[in-house]
Design goal:
37% of the residues lie in helices and 22% in strands. It is built from ten helices and nine strands. It has helices at residues 58-61, 67-75, 93-105, 122-127, 138-141, 147-150, 153-162, 174-187, 201-218, 226-231, and strands at 8-19, 29-35, 63-66, 81-85, 109-114, 130-133, 165-171, 192-196, 221-222. Helix 2 packs parallel to helix 3 (93-105). It is globular. Keywords: 4Fe-4S, Iron, Iron-sulfur, Lyase, Magnesium, Metal-binding, Queuosine biosynthesis, S-adenosyl-L-methionine. Catalyzes the complex heterocyclic radical-mediated conversion of 6-carboxy-5,6,7,8-tetrahydropterin (CPH4) to 7-carboxy-7-deazaguanine (CDG), a step common to the biosynthetic pathways of all 7-deazapurine-containing compounds.
């Protein structure tokens, strides 16, 4: 067996079939592989169990699973879409590469959710169907995250030039929209999707109602959080 496919990935959870809840593939049946660890520590993060060891025990929240085992798990379902998320999955892209390649060759559509701070390797770009790139605004990332930590110009331009990226921003305040406009213009980010921050249906719907007009005005796209509307902030959904 190829040594690469037996390399372990640090996995927080894998689950499905469920529905992709966000962005341009929202509503599609999907499997999720959530990798552990992140290079940011955003206060508004909805998956702190992938990185916040002040609140969670890393020994309980992560385990090593080989790319081969994850491949076999995904292939045990007919679900076409496999979403690899985190945390920040591209922290592990050396070990991730054989999984992405094997699933793509087997006919699966691969989407990677990323914060956009780490440029993908050419081999990852080749086999991934879509990058859902979510740069963090100053509001979302918090005061401890300077622009240089949360915005990597070279990486964002790399994603934009790949022709395989959509750019999905999480918004909680009107101030976020002006920052997003600046990033989109500076780095050539398109298409832009705007998603309300929130982990309850009430908050998500409330923020979508005022975001709608702003998104239309800027010729962007509006995303809900379908999984929150259906199941609340429930893990594994």
């Amino acid at each position: 067996m190829n040594d690469a496919i037996t390399r372990p990935l640090l996995v927080a959870e894998h689950f499905g079939p469920t529905l992709q809840g966000e962005g341009s593939s929202a509503g599609k049946p999907a499997l999720f592989i959530r990798l552990s660890r992140c290079n940011l520590s955003c206060p508004a993060c909805d998956t702190p169990y992938t990185w916040d060891w002040s609140r969670f025990n890393p020994r309980l929240e992560a385990r090593k699973i080989t790319a081969d085992a994850l491949h076999r798990w995904a292939m045990s379902y007919k679900t076409e879409l496999v979403v690899i998320t985190g945390g920040e999955p591209l922290l592990q892209q050396d070990a991730l590469r054989p999984l992405v390649r094997s699933l793509a060759i087997a006919g699966r559509r691969i989407e990677i959710e990323t914060n956009g701070t780490i440029a993908p390797d050419p081999d990852i770009i080749e086999y991934v169907s879509q990058f859902n790139v979510s740069p963090k605004t100053a509001t979302f990332a918090g005061s401890d995250a300077t622009r240089v930590h949360r915005i990597n110009p070279d990486a964002l331009r790399n994603f934009a030039s790949s022709q395989k990226a959509v750019f999905k921003f999480t918004v909680s305040s009107a101030e976020d929209l002006d920052e997003i406009s600046l990033h989109a213009a500076e780095f050539g980010l398109e298409p832009v999707w705007i998603m309300p921050e929130g982990t309850t249906p009430e908050v998500v719907l409330g923020r979508m109602s005022w975001l709608a007009e702003e998104v239309i005005k800027r010729n962007w796209n509006l995303s809900g959080r379908l999984h929150i509307l259906l199941w609340g902030d429930q893990r594994g959904r």
